[in-house]
Amino acid sequence: MKPSHITRKTCRLCGSTDLSLALSLQPTPIGDNYLTKERLGEPEEVFSLDLLACAKCGQVQLRDVVSPDLLYSRFPYVTSISVGLPEHFRRFAEKVMNDYEIRAGSLVVEIGSNEGPMLRAFLERGCRVLGVEPAGEIARAATDSGVPTLPKYFTKTLAKEILAEHGPASVLAANNVLANIDDLDDVVAGINVLLASDGILVMESSYWGSVVQQGLIDTIYHEHLSYFSVSPLNDFFLRHGLQVLDAEWNANKGGSIRLTIQRTGGSRPARPAVAERIALEQRERIHQPIAFDSCRKRLDTVTAQLQKMVAGFKQNSLSIAGYGASVGTTTMIYELRLGGAVEWLFDDNPRKFGTCSPGFQIPCVPSEKLEESRPGCVVVFAWRYFDQIRQKHPAFEKGIGRYVLPLPEAKMV
User: Fold this and answer.
1) Domain range spanning residue 222?
2) Over 167-228, what HEC string results?
3) pLDDT at 410
């Protein structure tokens, strides 16, 4: 029987054993393992959410690696439920083709392609596309919708198979997936096999600088093994014969970094943004204890403020609900000590209706029930989408109901 998790004792990027505690969060069950009524009696194992920092290169990563079989056997996330994300990928495809002169007929392969919205954008522009998505049900749905997708993990072995059948890839994309992979050396070896001599790898990931500076704990959960920044990744890719050409910050998921990468010695010059971002990380000391300590104090302050707000509603016998039943919601409920306060969760995703949250088993109901249930307080765990939520439910605030935003600062609206 495979263990449910392993404890990693080396840096995923440079192999150093000089790791120390950067940030300790409350242990949680698997964050997206929302339970159907039939599964409510199942035991739920709780796993550490301690983050370690590498003293040698600056990489930040979870201490414990939960078995992928546990994480992805019932993986429910699909990109279409994220507001604005499909359009974000359409713009992404257009920019990549224009900036790097990718021609129609070129092969585009995406690692962790989910339903395939990004690949569909390349397909519409005349490219050949192939997705690699280990969540079998989602991969089959993508293939059925016209985006051919392999229900497998991307490895060096799979890369050789793809190369033999489809030829080299002009574009390899890895959006919000490399942070979820433990053995990055094997993945990058596969990238080196499959990438065309003049091809590019484009990766996007949640940015550690934004996480630590704003206390974005809803990006911290067991699928996310790594919390990337430019400096450690730049050194990592160089060791693998790859060169970072560009580094762009964007507001996706509260703060993300997009890197464009070619083979070392390729024809494209590196843009100034790479060196500028590395210098900024050094100035802001995002890999240093001062940043970790500041984040911890920020989270403690937010927790205390939320507890005070919640106590006020309870004293007035007002019910408390949450809005947003995501993987990050589980982290927030545990870390902000809201498990005993929130009575139910509203959500827009039909996959979550009728389920209960991991651990505290808070019932999830359709967001359309917000007005009729009339809670006194709604904690907006989906705080990045608050404007859209507010517009969707104009009647809620006409009564006694109030919204509470937990991040990046506790605020009552």
Assistant:
1) 79-289
2) CCEEEEEEECCHHHCCCHHHHHHHHHHHEEEEEEEEEEEEEHHHHHHHCCHHHCCCCCCEEE
3) 96
